[in-house]
Amino acid sequence: MKVTVAGAGFVGLVASACLAELGHQVTCIDIQKEKINMLQCGRSPIYEPGLEELLEKNLCNKQLHFTTSPHQAYSGADIIFIAVGTPENHDGSADLKYIHVVSHTIAHYIEQDVIVCTKSTVPVGTNELIQQIIESRKPPNLQVEVVANPEFLRKGSAIHDFFHGDRIVIGTNHSEAAAFMEQFYLPLKIPIMKTDIRSAEMIKYAANAFLATKISFINEMANICKNVGACIEEVAYGIGQDKRIVHHFLKAGIGYGGSCFPKDTKALIQLSGDFKQRYELLEAVINVNNRQQSLPVLKAKEIIGSLQGKKIALLGLAFKADTDDIRESAAITIIKELLEAGAVVTAYDPIAIPNARRIIGNAIEYTEEIRQALLNADLALIATDWDQIKHLPLEVYLTHMKEPIVIDGRNCYPLQEIRQYPIIYRSIGRPDLPNTNDTFE
Ligand code: UGA
């Protein structure tokens, strides 16, 4: 089938590469010429494990093409996926300018009947708007059906998620379009849910709001655990055995970040407000998350007092491991707070440094060597659970730092391991170490 994907961002590129891998003839279009030039040479503009290999392979076997030409992209397409960005407006609502532009362009360039499938996260009612825009501008003899098809890909495991997702949601009020999409996705052998267009749009926001709520719930619980001397990991495991709760997404830490949860929770509050309804639970979820991101610096001040002139090693810049995305990363909040407090920061990250530098500039030092960041540091602060950090031999904190003080915002190390070293260790929702009973040789 001839498939066109509009937008060469994270969602568009993963969809393009994976649909080509499934055997479709895929054309991915973007308005950014530099990005398309790079992709035509098989280089991915974003870091996503396995993506570049899949792009290269399908470019070589000519299943995949990149273009900036709308005629080339849309004229012969059987199905068009919209995967353009929906950034945040000042008031938290979703900015639909790219959706408008792409809808107009599709209407102008299509030359045959086509299904238009929206993968971008869009507020309820947007797919009907896309249908109206295309309907009013397309050649009158052509039939176009717009289908809401939200994606549930996670950064860092998107290729796996595409082929092994929990469900595919197809939202349309048109039975033939629903049947077409069902056939299209059949080879993936993923359970397919067909629903109306507005429910499909809502499923995406509801899923992200629920997952964000789970994280703020467990973080709130972690803070109580710490106060009463319980361990959040035991508690999360214990409640997760209940099938109504499940253990996934109950990892306490310094809060969620990224381009999705922060944006989508705010957009849902805004959407709710449009109907004069306050979404109080979600407001609390966001407040808890903001507070959680500020915990590490508070803990640092508790241990060493003033941070003025202190050398801090910040381990991890990405909002989570296996991505170079630093949008809404807890690390960025932490850096701002550390700089305000007069600290001297050296940040370690294996791949997110170029993106962080664009936001933070030269106000801090950067290194791709953990040991370099830790050298002579007064305190280390872990913001991302990179494997490189999790597998660092704990002796390194003793041999490299001025004082072995570690604030672990991602609970990277088992307490029984830390206990074997004279490291002053604070984590999230777990007892402080060393405690009064610990002695070291
Ligand atoms: C999230 C959803 O998980 C995807 O299903 C969805 O498709 C995507 O948003 C989107 O809307 O496009 P993503 O933002 O890539 O995916 O990353 P997650 O793995 O969900 O992690 C989000 C944040 O929550 C990270 O900062 C992570 O460190 C944090 N987190 C996650 C926790 O603090 N605890 C957990 O138990 C899980």
The strand line-up of the biggest sheet is 3-2-1-4-5-6
Bound molecules: uridine-5'-diphosphate-glucuronic acid
* Rg, nearest Å: 24 Å
Quickly count the domains: 3
Descriptors:
single chain; 441 residues; alpha/beta; Rossmann fold; six-stranded parallel β-sheet; elongated; binds uridine-5'-diphosphate-glucuronic acid
Structural features, described:
With 441 residues, the protein is an alpha/beta fold. The protein has three domains: 194 residues, NAD(P)-binding Rossmann-like Domain (Rossmann fold), CATH 3.40.50.720; 88 residues, N-(1-d-carboxylethyl)-l-norvaline Dehydrogenase, domain 2; 133 residues, NAD(P)-binding Rossmann-like Domain (Rossmann fold), CATH 3.40.50. It is built from 18 helices and 14 strands. The strands form three sheets. Strands 3-2-1-4-5-6 form a six-stranded parallel sheet, with helices on both faces. Helix 1 links the parallel strand 1 and strand 2. Helix 5 packs parallel to helix 6, helix 9 packs across helix 11 and helix 11 packs antiparallel against helix 12. It is elongated. The mean pLDDT is 96. The protein binds uridine-5'-diphosphate-glucuronic acid. The site of uridine-5'-diphosphate-glucuronic acid has 20 residues, from helix 9. The site of uridine-5'-diphosphate-glucuronic acid (UGA) has 20 residues, from helix 9.
